[in-house]
């Protein structure tokens, strides 16, 4: 369970202060897939970064399974499986070594890592390349490696920043099935996307973010009712106030 | 298993799979250092030997005034040449190392028993090139002076020892190890440079490179603390550098064990015991270098920016060597606490086979490790900066 309450974050740049996140509140429940939907630059990545303790909020509060990232950053990170926007892998290590490295950083022993890697390899379909060095991997193979690495410690909460970016149709499909599997296991899945169709196809609950604010949230049905639009796409355009960035 | 150990092992595995990095650190540098020193040493000693023992080419002005002196010089392996038109200029332009001018009154003075004038024209601003030749000519003139003086005294019935109140004997206490030549003065600098920035490639790869390749953010999302992560990277850099230094010193030992002793006028051998001591002396510099490099590279936005600091860092270990060259000093205890200067002094002393007292070890290692510790503390502070991880 991830709770976000009135989160704010500004960056000072040469052009002045940019309010990247300006009062974002939502709740991502266990056994549900929650989607953060918004155009590019809406503040999704910054919000997620404050969740996994990479950045400190200026104001507001985050709770992960009831823990405060500011007070217990290591415990919070232990409970999270994070696929950040940056998902580089070590190219001189094999996919398995990449995953095992993160397993060790999570304090797992070698037996537990081996067992867990076998499960992830099966679930993500990585049999063909698990023992190859990641140099020259396709985008899909890299992303799968990064996801396996993020989930090696079997976290209760899974945070994915634009997980389908750059993936082909087949890989995207298998990733969706994988996320449904995580949900069926009772985990809390939170992911961000700027692609409306993807959020619509996957999510139990949608949080629409624009210009650093939550402009609407609820189940797909609630959103349709709230806007009076039958079509989800029209509903999104209406709450965001523009068509910019919703289609990819 | 602690996180720093995991990070360190991963960075070392990563480094050892980077062929270029391994080749440079464990093959090229270990071969280059002994070759540079052996090369400089043998060229240097060969040239000095030539100047001491080869024929001395000497332009003489007014040669016709002193035929006996010139005949004597010729028997001492001096080739007398015609003088150039502009003797001062010729010496200054390095056309000749030294020119002898004989006074026009030389003959008259000689016959009258007055000191006859000769003049040595030389340029003292190039002691390395022409110092040996100048000293050789002065020595020859002094010998001639003494011989003729002795003969004159005997001709007058005076015992020559009357005019020799002193008999100066000489005893050189230099041991073969301590007879250093210029080439070997380079060794401490090369070792310190290697120790300080030898881990550059690894440090940049593990920090700026990690961010450029977008793997830093996932790493920071693991429970490992930032202190543990940066410490692991620093220690990996230090371990790799230390290994490179060890291989270099072993290669140095092998190289000079192979060179026939007669080819050099000084011994350049390093015992296994000395290698161990040298590594201990260098250890704080290795740790300091690894920390500074990691911190700088972590702070830099990119590979390129990190490499931009390189010239500045190369300059630091050079300072004490330069200082010691212009003013060679006897080691004071406080000097051993000065980074680089202290190490430089101790390396020289270990190489010269001089004993180092426990207090000196303590001051040197203590100061070095303290400084490395401060740098480490600063580096961990820097690593907590928020913008560090945000790559995009």
Would you kindly provide a written description of the structure presented here, covering whatever features stand out?
The complex is a heterodimer of chains A (248) and B (392). Chain A is an alpha/beta fold. In chain A, 38% of the residues lie in helices and 26% in strands. Chain A has a domain at 2-86 and 156-240: P-loop containing nucleotide triphosphate hydrolases (Rossmann fold). Chain A contains nine helices and nine strands. In chain A, the strands form two sheets. A six-stranded mixed β-sheet of chain A has the order 5-6-7-3-8-9, with helices on both faces. A three-stranded antiparallel β-sheet of chain A has the order 2-1-4. The two termini of chain A are 30 Å apart. Chain B has 392 residues and is mainly alpha-helical. Chain B contains 17 helices and four strands. Chain B has helices at 3-16, 19-53, 67-75, 87-92, 106-112, 127-155, 182-197, 200-206, 208-212, 216-220, 226-258, 272-299, 303-308, 310-315, 318-326, 341-352, 358-383; strands at 56-61, 78-81, 98-102, 118-122. The longest helix of chain B is centred in the first third of the chain and has 35 residues, at 19-53. The radius of gyration of chain B is 30 Å and the shape is elongated.
